[in-house]
Design brief:
Blueprint (H helix, E strand, L loop, with lengths): L7 H6 L5 E10 L15 E15 L2 E6 L2 E5 L5 E4 L4 E9 L1 E3 L2 E2 L9 E3 L7 H5 L7 H14 L6 H14 L1 H9 L7 H8 L3 H12 L3 H17 L5 H7 L5 H12 L3 H5 L16
Antiparallel strand pairs: 1-6, 2-3, 2-4, 2-5, 2-6, 4-9, 7-8
Length: 281
């Protein structure tokens, strides 16, 4: 009996679940267009352009955004938006975790833009007309399909190769999950893996394309984002992540996100209806 070997990505894509962090509608004017996205994002940004025109610069490539386009800004990417006229969009910040907060869009090189149907018939846009939370399941499914449409067939070989690298570090990634703290060190992880700190750091960066310290920082920020959507106080969140005081936590968060934890806490979330203008961070 022969067993058919399936591509690695098929088993993982069948089990992933999109996490919507924040969303809203915004209008960018020329005085708001520079340096808005200078901080590499810790999540994916999906834009539905509903009006106007703008020039997006990302990874050294310029792309013109127009009404009727979807635009994807992948995790860990910074960009610049320049517009001489109004740019209207519906935006969604989301994660698509594959394993231990490693995002699917970190493993591929997705295209930047795609067309979408009339925004007035889009489930995403229609959601803003309704407060029925059952509709959010429909919206979530549509956003996931739209996001995955940016990944081409040619990306799958690269995805499988990088996913194998991720799975090689399961011991390290799981240890980080269990002991996540600003005080966690490379030495701690090396001891858990039974190798030297230098070897682990060098191999992790080579295989994963990101330093261990940078990965830990990303995990801490992601955990803080999740906590800030809940009811715990800032002091409790800071203490739970190993920060010595709330000032250090706030400075650390703002360094990575470009806004304070308090400002982030008051951003619109899937649990809150959004209307009118909103400037995304």
């Amino acid at each position: 009996m022969s067993i058919e070997r399936r591509p690695l990505h098929e088993s993982y894509f069948s089990n992933i679940d999109l996490e919507i962090l924040y969303f809203g509608r915004s209008s960018h004017l020329d005085d708001m267009s520079t340096d808005m996205y200078r901080h590499p994002s810790l999540f994916n940004r999906l834009w539905y352009i509903t009006g106007g025109k703008a020039l997006l610069t990302m990874n050294g490539t310029e792309t013109t955004l127009r009404r009727g386009m979807m635009c994807l800004i992948p995790v860990n990417t910074k960009c610049a938006v320049d517009t001489a006229v109004r740019l209207d969009k519906v935006w969604v910040d989301f994660r698509l975790p594959i394993y231990s907060l490693v995002d699917a869009f970190e493993l591929v090189h997705p295209r930047v833009t795609r067309p979408f149907s009339s925004y007035r018939s889009s489930p995403v846009f229609r959601y803003f007309k309704s407060t029925n939370m059952l509709h959010s399941a429909v919206m979530k499914q549509r956003i996931m399909l739209d996001a995955l449409s940016f990944i081409g067939a040619d990306d799958m070989k690269l995805f499988d190769e990088r996913l194998r690298n991720v799975l090689e570090y399961r011991t390290v990634l799981d240890y980080i999950s269990r002991h996540l703290s600003i005080r966690l060190t490379v030495h701690d992880l090396a001891n858990a893996a039974g190798v030297s700190g230098y070897y682990l750091s060098a191999k992790f960066r080579k295989d994963m394309g990101i330093g261990l310290k940078q990965y830990i920082d990303r995990r801490i920020i992601a955990a803080a984002q999740q906590e800030l959507r809940g009811a715990r106080s800032m002091r409790e969140i800071a203490r739970g992540l190993g920060f010595r005081d709330i000032t250090y936590f706030s400075t650390y968060f703002k360094h990575h996100m470009g806004i304070s934890p308090m400002a982030y806490r008051h951003m619109p979330s899937p649990e809150r209806m959004v209307s009118g203008r909103y400037r995304a961070p």
